Amino acid sequence: MSALDISLSVNGEAVTERVEPRQTLVDFLREDLGLTGSHVGCEHGVCGACTVHVNGEIVRGCLMLAVQCDGATVETIEGLSDSGEIADLQLAFEQRNALQCGYCTPGMLAAAQDLLKRAKETKIVPSRDDIREHLSGNYCRCTGYQAIVDAVESVAQARAENKW
Ligand code: FES
Ligand code: FES
C-alpha cells in the first residue's frame, strides 16, 4: 500500500504529513516531527516509554499507527511541558529524585497527568495504590518506583488543596 496523507493536531499545531501505512505513531512523532521526548523501549506495548495523549486518552505510541491519528488531537510530552500543565509534576519528580536515567520519565509524566486529570473530575485524591495501579503500565528500570509514587502523591495532594 502506498503512503497516505494525514492531518492532525499535534501539541496545538495543525500538521499534514505523508506517512507510510505501517509507520507507528511514536516513530512518526520522533522521526517526522522531531518530537523525540516520546521514547521507544519495547515496541510491544509493555513498557510505556512511548505514552502520549490522543484525543485526551493515554495511548501507547508504539501500538498505534500514524494513519490512525488522521483527524486526531495528539499531545506529547513537549506539549504538556510547554503548556505548563505538568510543571508541578516535573518539579516534584526533580525534588524527590523520581528519575535517574530519565528514559521512562516522559511516559510516566504523561500517565501521571492523565490520572490527575481524572482525579480533578471526580475530586477524589488518588491513593498510593491508585497511583501504582495507574502507572503499572509504565516501567522504570532505575528508581524502584517509590520516589515516583511519592512525587505523584504530593502533587495530587497539592492540587486538591488548591482546589485542582
Ligand atoms: S515502546 Fe511502546 S510500550 Fe514500550
Ligand atoms: S529513570 Fe531510568 S528508566 Fe525510569
CATH class of the largest domain: Mainly Alpha
| Cα separation of the termini | 47 Å
Q: What is the count of structural domains? A: 2
What is the fold-level CATH name, i.e. the topology of the largest domain? Answer: DNA polymerase, domain 1
Rg of Cα set = 16 Å
User: Quick one: CATH superfamily of the largest domain?
Assistant: [2Fe-2S]-binding domain
Overall strand count? 5
Class from secondary-structure proportions: alpha+beta
The description of the largest β-sheet is:
5 strands, mixed
> Low-confidence stretches at least 5 residues in length (pLDDT < 50)?
none
Describe this entry's structure for a reader.
The chain is an alpha+beta fold. It is 40% helix and 15% strand. The protein has helices at residues 25-32, 77-83, 87-95, 105-122, 128-134, 146-161; strands at residues 4-10, 13-19, 51-54, 57-60, 73-75. The chain has a five-stranded mixed beta sheet with strand order 2-1-5-3-4, with helices on both faces. Strand 3 and strand 4 (57-60) form a beta hairpin. Helix 3 packs across helix 6 and helix 4 (105-122) runs parallel beside helix 6. It is globular. The chain starts with a strand and ends with a helix. The site of one FE2/S2 (inorganic) cluster has 12 residues, from loops.
In a nutshell, what does this entry contain?
The chain is of the alpha+beta class and 164 residues long.
Keywords:
single chain, 164 residues, alpha+beta, Ubiquitin-like (UB roll), DNA polymerase, domain 1, 2 domains, five-stranded mixed beta sheet, globular, binds FE2/S2 (inorganic) cluster
